[in-house]
Amino acid sequence: MKPSLLAVACTALVLVACNGASNANGAQSESAAAPAAAVAKTGKPFVSTEVAKFDEPWAMTFLPDGRLLVTEKEGKLKVLDVASKRIGEVSGVPAVDYGGQGGLGDIVLHPKFAENGIVYLSYAERGDGDTRGGAVARAKLALDGNGGGALSDLKVIWRQVPKVSGRGHYGHRIAFDEDGMLWISSSERQKFDPAQDMKSNLGKIVRLNDDGSVPTDNPFADQGGVTAQIWSLGHRNALGLAFDAQGRLWEHEMGPAGGDELNLIERGSNYGYPIVSNGNHYDGRDIPDHDTRPEFNAPEAFWNPVISPAGFIIYSGKQFPGWQGDGFIGGLSSQSLIRIEFDGVKAREAARYDMGHRIREVEQGPDGAIWLLEDGGGARLLKLTPA
């Protein structure tokens, strides 16, 4: 296993070195964010409250009226009335190829949702024979008076190319920037080489107009085809996208055996996978580190051992004023919530909070609370508020 400066400095065993004073549970006492006594009691500067449970949830997003849309991998879109805790179902969801890491994925609102009612869904889609790939569709959402709703006018606007065998590494996270451009993380489907193939959109970060067409100012737009969609390449399994207050796009992705990454996404840049990585192949074969090939864009932070990142926000709320501008990443294998501090284009793990369960998704609520979805069957929806 290759050494990681971040891991050496920031694992739970050495939070004192990385984060200053720590309590008996190994978590930093952030007295500016919560009373010291409360933090010392729980080991966390927040209180975690269970709000609801879902079956294999994958993503969530808040509606303008405060209700919450939640996707479940098997192919269901749920709507939760947070106040009453009533859960309804939205019909009209596209058929998904459920299995492995595949199924219904991300859910985001159009930037002008209040005017047009349009939502975007990502999901795994079956192809010819034993093939499948990620897809993104947009549809109009109408909620009814019975706690549920329906999608209509559904249209697929993007697909992974090519469809391949296997049910891993779809990625298909979705985000909009302040200009209304649509960004999609397209993972390499555990096929390695497509991440460097410019005639495939696997292992890439994709930038599109909101209708799925290709912006003329994309870095490879003049090459046409799927190449024109590409903003950056050389990615493995990208499961988090978030824009900071300056409009910079940050992405996290799972490494192989080691080397989970947090990257600042730059126009036309190559992040090196599978040629370089700060991890190794699962069979023990070495992958050269990023510092051996400076022509590739190296991560701003990486983890050995891995955290298995999933879900990502950059916080802008008022409930945790000391955390404004910080990132929050859900940890699957690490069963944690990881807080990231940014200094311009630099990033580091600042704290890690043991949640005792795999964390699949992170979202910021309308009131500035932080919301988490656990992974798997009977997964809890948790609301985090200051301790």
TrEMBL record:
InterPro entries: 6-blade_b-propeller_TolB-like, Glc/Sorbosone_DH, Quinoprot_gluc/sorb_DH_b-prop. It holds the Pfam family GSDH. The keyword Lyase does not apply. Keywords: Signal. Residues 54-382 form the Glucose/Sorbosone dehydrogenase domain. Gene3D superfamilies: TolB, C-terminal domain. The keyword Signal applies. Residues 1-23 form the signal peptide. It comes from the Bacteria. This is PQQ-dependent sugar dehydrogenase. It comes from Luteimonas gilva.
